[in-house]
């Protein structure tokens, strides 16, 4: 049995999802992979900080947060270490960086990740900021310090889109990536196809918790653009400023547009695409009316999908969940197993 | 630069495809991964055997076979080593096992693979026989001898279905696998939807080289059943005798059946499925009328697809090419890179 000690920075939705996965799957992971994942420290901006070398019980962390909204029930001194001190002092093999996303600066996650890597700790994150803004540099830093950086959770939650492109398709050269990378807008389009007008479909998405009160991040294509920036940085090694991504959302589409596409055997989808053309990368998010035979046309509801076009294979398409607290936490586990469990051929 | 010396057993379609990939991609693989793949021996039942410690030129092997159908142009003595002697004597790190498939006994590939693994050589194969009949035992043998066994090419050619299930979804427990695993029958169904009767669609598949003169392996579901047996052995560690797989082909479907499904917004597909129910695995190949919202319903033409249902994620679907000499050769390269190149998280 190998103990893998983890420090968690951030204990919001995804962090709690991860703790929940450890509660439910910890035994199986010990048996199946001989890996005992142990949370030795946790630091959250609002919930406080805790550390215990012998390990903190994930269920106790969840209970404390559910009951009081913070870790005060577990310790009288929950302000001992801040995030940086936690990364610095916790005796751990890996840091889970799950602080709030900032797509402008990447902070504070960028500083957290860089510090952890310099200390030779592996880092696993679902945070979009650092992956979109600085992945190539962080990957080099990880390499220099003999550790790994996992960002599977930053795109399509637990659906292993990043590992597919980075590991499984690496025998080929990826020429083009196109996908449905925002589940909320795809849900709205699916409901509009079923007959709802845009406003009613959006209201339904908000009621189901898919869309926020201000839905512009989803319906104007900002979220999909951020995911393109991540794919560019991770798969092509090129950071792509968000303002350089051509972006158009779905707000101009009407139910009539969708009905008319259906009569042509087509479907409107918000397609995010990234393509190598000579030395430049072209990136755009735009509604596209796809023929039903297109691999993305059949993707309905809040599901996400990605089509990789390479030089050696025909299009390879991956379809799966694109969001969710357990689904995203699952991505962290995928990255941790890739780092700590011996691979199979 | 790390030299990886390869011995090839079998130089048919896939073997030649692999040589062609080395000709086209060798430089890129050296630059990108620091790996120099070198064929030091090749042994084919009808084309003869060659070995050269300094490496055989893949283009020369291809030219010899194209011109004379064998290796006689390259050496006066092409009978020096048989397959077993090649595996035994060639100074190599990996053996590519590409001899003819035998789904009853797995031989001679089984003997080749077992010998190679006992000698501590990694093995990469696209051969369905050993993977379907003895994968769990061969994987243990590989483990015992500190080497790896790659079988990515045995299902869905270069589409990385095996690695997806084995590596990327290993944080979860796979409950169900269902797929379109035979491109020929899917091509025929797609043509029937477009209006052709079965006999005409089959004739078209034969003219395009998708179906053989005796098409029963494809249209009666034998090929899909063999792939289920491979998935069972690789993903669940359980060998599944082919006769225990319930099997029904597409020959009883008429154009009228497909048209009537279309009116119900459904599509007939030959679905291969494998499901854990308690302690037993249930496997079957059968035509199923799927609602258009099903992830397999939109898969058309000779394309293959696989849906993994796990306990922790929603369905994850992979769609891509299912056959082809370069596509299958690509799978060998994927396995070789997984073995010899350091992974990324």
Summary tags:
alpha/beta, six-stranded mixed β-sheet, globular, homodimer, Dihydrodipicolinate Reductase, domain 2, 12 helices, 40% helix
Describe the structure.
Two copies of one chain form a homodimer. Chain A has two domains: 2-158 and 325-340, Rossmann fold (3-Layer(aba) Sandwich), CATH 3.40.50.720; 163-321, Dihydrodipicolinate Reductase, domain 2 (2-Layer Sandwich), CATH 3.30.360. Helix content of chain A is 40%, strand content 24%. Chain A has twelve helices and twelve strands. Chain A has a six-stranded mixed sheet with strand order 3-2-1-4-5-6, with helices on both faces. In chain A, strands 8-10-9-7-11-12 form a six-stranded mixed sheet. The first copy, chain A, is globular. The mean pLDDT of chain A is 94.
Q: Can you say what the CATH homologous superfamily of the largest domain in chain A is?
A: NAD(P)-binding Rossmann-like Domain
| H/E topology pattern of chain A | EHEEHHEHEHEHEHHHHEHEEEEH
Q: How many β-strand stretches of chain A?
A: 12
Proportion in helices of chain A = 40-55%
Can you tell me the CATH class of the largest domain in chain A? Answer: Alpha Beta
Counting helices, strands and paired strands, the structural category of chain A is alpha/beta
Largest interface: A-B, 55 and 54 residues
Q: What distance lies between the first and last C-alpha atoms of chain A, to the nearest angstrom?
A: 22 Å
Radius of gyration of chain A, in angstroms, nearest whole number: 21 Å
CATH topology of the largest domain in chain A: Rossmann fold
* Beta-strand proportion of chain A: 15-25%
How many domains of chain A? The number is 2
Subunit organisation of the chains:
homodimer
Strand order of the largest sheet of chain A: 3-2-1-4-5-6
Largest sheet of chain A: 6 strands, mixed
Total of helices of chain A? 12
Shape of chain A: globular
Low-confidence stretches of chain A: none
CATH architecture of the largest domain in chain A: 3-Layer(aba) Sandwich
- The average pLDDT of chain A is 94
């Amino acid at each position: 049995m190998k103990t893998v000690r983890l420090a968690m920075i951030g204990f919001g939705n995804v962090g709690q999802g991860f703790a929940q996965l450890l509660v439910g799957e910890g035994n199986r992971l010990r048996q199946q992979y001989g890996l005992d994942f142990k949370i030795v420290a946790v630091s959250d901006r609002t919930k406080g900080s805790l550390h215990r070398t012998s390990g903190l019980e994930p269920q106790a962390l969840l209970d404390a947060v559910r009951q009081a909204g913070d870790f005060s029930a577990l310790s009288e001194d929950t302000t001992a270490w801040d995030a940086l001190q936690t990364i610095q002092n916790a005796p751990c093999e890996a840091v889970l960086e799950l602080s709030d996303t900032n797509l402008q600066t990447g902070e504070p996650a960028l500083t957290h990740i860089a510090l952890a890597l310099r200390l030779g700790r592996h880092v696993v994150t679902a945070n979009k900021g650092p992956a979109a803004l600085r992945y190539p540099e962080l990957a080099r830093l990880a390499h220099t310090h003999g550790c790994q950086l996992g960002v599977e959770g930053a795109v399509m939650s637990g659906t292993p889109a990043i590992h597919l492109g980075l590991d499984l398709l690496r025998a080929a050269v990826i020429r083009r990536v196109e996908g449905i990378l925002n589940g909320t807008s795809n849900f709205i389009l699916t409901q509009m196809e079923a007959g709802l007008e845009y406003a009613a479909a959006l209201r339904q998405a908000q009621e189901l918790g898919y869309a926020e009160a201000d839905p512009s991040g989803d319906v104007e294509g900002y979220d999909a653009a951020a995911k393109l920036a991540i794919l560019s940085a991770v798969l092509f090694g090129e950071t792509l400023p968000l303002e350089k991504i051509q972006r158009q959302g779905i707000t101009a589409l009407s139910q009539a547009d969708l009905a008319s596409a259906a009569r042509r055997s087509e479907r409107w989808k918000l397609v995010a695409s990234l393509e190598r053309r000579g030395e430049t990368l072209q990136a755009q998010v735009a509604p596209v009316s796809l023929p039903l035979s297109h691999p993305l046309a059949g993707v309905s509801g809040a599901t996400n999908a990605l089509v990789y076009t390479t030089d050696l294979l025909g299009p390879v398409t991956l379809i799966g969940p694109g969001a969710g607290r357990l689904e995203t936490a699952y991505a962290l586990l995928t990255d941790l197993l890739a780092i700590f469990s011996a691979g199979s051929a």
